[in-house]
């Protein structure tokens, strides 16, 4: 897999950008973004598409807005997906890879699942029958963070991540995984840990059984948190490719692990070797 950018470096460079300069994103850059989307290998099967939306007042007079959360952005990508039961993980996986690609081009982005006027943006795009419109992101060049943005980041603890011993386990969510035992897979898990998530809730939990990494979501939100796990799995898989680790994503039998009510199994990475 050739992702076209340095994965670990880009994972660290990415941050949610909520304040933008007035520099426009050129047509050539937009074409590169759409061309890159076509190269992304989606292991979860629901089709995912993006459409550019210029910020202006919608035809129905409603303002294309983000409730003040995003400032200065003139361009957005609206994300649509086939309404299948794997839509959430498909959107997370595919769009995070696109987000990392855009980061590598020097662009800023911010996953938006809630803080935008969905009805007004929906008027500006094509949503085929049987498709959904769950996510929007501004796309543009980052400007200095506003105070409001800093306050928001502090409120949701956006600069911090949960410690690995609370996320990665060697059995049924009780014994923390000793990262020294998993070789270069420690880098895959660390890059997963750094991923963005809705409200920075970091709902991913991982069990390593000696041969496979099993990915679960923990949290009360269904769609957004399964989507978050798709984002995390993308970081894991791209890092495995960067480190030359072979394996494959599949559904495994995880019935031996007792799941709390707010947990859901998403997928497993079966290692060719550890
Ligand atoms: C699925 C998803 C939905 C999100 N929705 C919003 C949103 O509606 N508004 C917002 O300001 N940020 C939103 N975020 C951004 C998160 O708050 C952000 O990723 C998290 O706080 C971590 O910060 P970082 O991205 O700078 O690392 C969302 C992120 C994800 C992954």
Primary descriptors:
7 helices, alpha+beta, 4-stranded antiparallel beta sheet, NADH Oxidase, binds flavin mononucleotide, 30% helix, single chain, 5-stranded mixed beta sheet, 2 domains, 9 strands, 274 residues
Protein described:
- The protein has seven helices and nine strands; from the N terminus they run ααββαβαβαβαββαββ.
- The protein has 274 residues and is of the alpha+beta class.
- It has two domains: 7-151, NADH Oxidase (3-Layer(aba) Sandwich), CATH 3.40.109; 164-271, putative nitroreductase (tm1586), domain 2 (NADH Oxidase), CATH 3.40.109.
- It has a five-stranded mixed β-sheet with strand order 5-6-7-9-8, with helices on one face.
- α6 links the parallel β5 (168-169) and β6 (204-208).
- The longest helix is centred in the C-terminal third of the chain and has 20 residues, at 223-242.
- The relative contact order is 0.16.
- The model has no long low-confidence stretch (mean pLDDT 95).
Quick structural overview:
Helix content is 30%, strand content 20%. It is α+β, with helices and mostly antiparallel strands.
| Number of spatially distinct domains | 2
Kindly report how far apart the N and C termini lie: 19 Å
On the 0-100 scale, what is the average pLDDT? 95
- The gyration radius over C-alpha positions equals 18 Å
Q: List low-pLDDT spans.
A: none
Heteromolecules bound: flavin mononucleotide
Strand order of the largest sheet: 5-6-7-9-8
CATH topology call of the largest domain: NADH Oxidase
| Named CATH architecture of the largest domain | 3-Layer(aba) Sandwich
Bin the helical content.
25-40%
